[in-house]
Amino acid sequence: MVSVLLDHGADPNKIANCVFTPLVSSLLGGSLECMKLIIQAGANVNGAGFNGATPLLLACSRPGNIGFINCLLESGANPNIPDEEVVEVLLLSTHRAPTFPDWSVGGIIGYVNSAAYKEWARNASCKRKDDLKLQGNSAFNSKNYDAAILLYSLAMKFDNTDPMLYSNRSVCWLHLGIGDEALSDAQMCSKIQPEWAKGYFRQGMAFFLLQDYAGASEVLHRALKLDPRNVAIAKSLQDVLEAMNPRKEESSAAFGRQKKRNRRSRAGDGHTQKGMNTLRS
After folding, report:
1. pLDDT per residue over 125-184, tens digit each?
2. Do 203 and 81 reside in the same domain of the chain?
């Protein structure tokens, strides 16, 4: 029916009852196919209808509208909607907070821009980040590295300047054998806190996994300089240096094998001599 009406000249941008555009009607009616037909007919995807709200804003304000949102964005809908419009639309479906002094569009926006709210938001973000980090640590200790990565990533949404989050996520990537991601996180860790040995240690392990032994050696030397007593860093550096000199390692191994053969030979001579002495007696 919609296709027939459009083919016969129906206006895809006409506003009905001063409220509904055809796009908004297709959204509220739950018909993605109708929305696509209306857009193809030339509908303005940024056209305001319901209280000045665009179809994209309405789609974002209701759950289960991913298909509609993708369709609108792919068709050029503007995602940068002013805060006033967002608040105005969402305010219609809310109840007044008893303790809020001014339950209006202006009052809500004013409060969100106030110093008191910003301080509250900072504290709330910090607490949420810490909670997610603890959950990530718990997942890591349970060797659930995929879950730990997800939790550390979520924590970064609240604070992307915490070097520990990048360090922790880096070691998760290492356990999963994904060197590129491990290196990227380790480098970000060192960028945020350049005097922390662990960031360079993580880089060294990532370079080692990627078989870039020269890179591993460089950053591990730097890590050891920052933390000279760290046994793990020293051991890792030793492993890297051995990997960089395979011939020396092979020579050492061959020398060790020769020593074992010599010991066996001497032991065999001793047994032979003892046997001979026994026979003589």
Report:
1. 899 899 999 999 999 999 999 889 989 998 998 899 999 999 999 999 999 999 999 999
2. no
pTM above 0.70, yes or no: no
Distance CA 218, CA 203 (A): 10
What CATH number is given to the structural domain containing 33? 1.25.40.20
**Contacts of residue 117, Cβ cutoff 8 Å, sequence gap at least 6:** 111
Answer for the pair 185, 153: CB distance below 8 angstroms, yes or no.
Answer: no
Domain count, the chain: 2
Are 81 and 54 contacting, i.e. CB atoms less than 8 angstroms apart?
yes
**Residue 271, in any domain of the structure:** no
**Residue numbers of the domain that contains 60:** 2-98
